[in-house]
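Chapter review: from sequence to fold.
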Amino acid sequence: MRIKPEYPNILKRQDLVYPKLSYEIVGAAFKVYNQLGWGHKESIYQKSFENELKKSGIKFEREKLVSVKYNNQEVGRGFLDFVVDGRIVVEFKVMPKFGYIHINQVVGYLKSINLPLAILIYFLKDGVKYRRILNK
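The token string follows.
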């Protein structure tokens, strides 16, 4: 009988933020891509990802409103695709490549809600790509 480790060895690293939950989030994105493939609207991937999270029993909020404040006054708003387990922001893109504009947007979201980690997930022709973005 072959026994598989519960998680890859990388999840044992002490320097990673939320490694187990991150692994589950990225795994759910790959499941969505493996079934749907490439070429859908962002909203299709989001709804499918939502179904994967529900199936896995992972808590999340979808389309969470974020307020940006300056001198205690609201100066802007944005909607997060997902906040998973109250700890990780997850944003989806279907653009052909990672862009600094998207990374900067996510950094702003992290600062606004004071969370340590976001995962930016791209559904591309050649598969799923993702970036972990830290709030320093």
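Two observations follow directly from the output. The first strand starts at residue 60 and ends at 70. Residues 17-134 form a domain with the Lambda Exonuclease; Chain A fold (CATH 3.90.320.10).
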